[in-house]
Amino acid sequence: MLKAENLVLHVEDNGAKKCLLDHISFQVDDGEMLVITGPNGGGKSTLAKVLIGIEKAESGKIFLNGEDITNYDINHRANAGIGYAFQQPPRFKGMTVQRLLALAAGREMSDQECCKLLSDVGLCAEEYLNRQIDGTLSGGEMKRIEIATVLAKEHTLCIFDEPEAGIDLWSFSMLIHKFEEIHKEKKQSLIVISHQEKIISMADRIMVIDDGKIKAEGLKEDVLPCLNGLDKCHTCAGKAGVRE
Known about the structure:
Number of strands: 12
Strand order of the largest sheet: 6-9-10-3-11-12
CATH superfamily: P-loop containing nucleotide triphosphate hydrolases
């Protein structure tokens, strides 16, 4: 279980302080899928980076399975069981796809294991094992390879930042199938940042973030009907945690 308590983060913006995260508190239970959605620039990706340790909150606490990981760096959080897929995956010139998958898994991997991971994210494996992680790969190819690196190792919690960005419809269908498989097994918790209706509808719970604040949080059946009108919706207030 992941638990975040009162996470606060500001940045300097033209000489003024801008609040990116305003006392964010929530939890993700074991085997649960939480989808975080909301307008662009609302703080979703910033929250993900704070959870994995890329950014550090000014205040607040983060717990994973009861262990305080607030002061852990990104490597220690990964070792504790958090996997993360960037919205814009980094490139590593000189490193092959197969080597990257092995590093992500923490062990050497057979061609067959690598091919299975790549196939799961919609790539023709034999064409990619020896490709370098460089500018010859498109943004969509990079996105799919990075998702494969997250799937290469079993985690307590996996965080995916807009996994649908830059991939074609066929690959997106395969990605949805993989999320359904992970969710059904209940071995890992999932946090998925997305605007995609298909992904949002898979959630156990939905959290809406805008202007650094949680605007709504609750069970899918309570929050989903209100996503198009949270500013005016009062029917699920209290029930789904809609906040004005």
